[in-house]
Amino acid sequence: MGRPFIFINSAMSADGKISTKERKQVRISGDVDFDRMDELRATSDAIVVGIGTVLADDPSLTVKSKSRRTARKASGSDEDPIRIVIDSKARTPLDADIFIKGEGKRIIAVSGSAPEDRVKMLQQKALVITAGDEQVDLCALMKELDSMGVKRLMIEGGATLNWAMLSNGLVDEIYSFVGNLLIGGTCAPTLVDGSGFDEDDVLKLDLMGMEKMDEGVLLKWAVVNRH
Ligand SMILES: NC(=O)C1=CN([C@@H]2O[C@H](COP(=O)(O)OP(=O)(O)OC[C@H]3O[C@@H](n4cnc5c(N)ncnc54)[C@H](O)[C@@H]3O)[C@@H](O)[C@H]2O)C=CC1
Ligand SMILES: Nc1nc(O)c(N)c(N[C@@H]2O[C@H](COP(=O)(O)O)[C@@H](O)[C@H]2O)n1
Question: What Enzyme Commission number(s) does the record list for this chain (predicted)?
Answer without folding.
Answer: 1.1.1.302
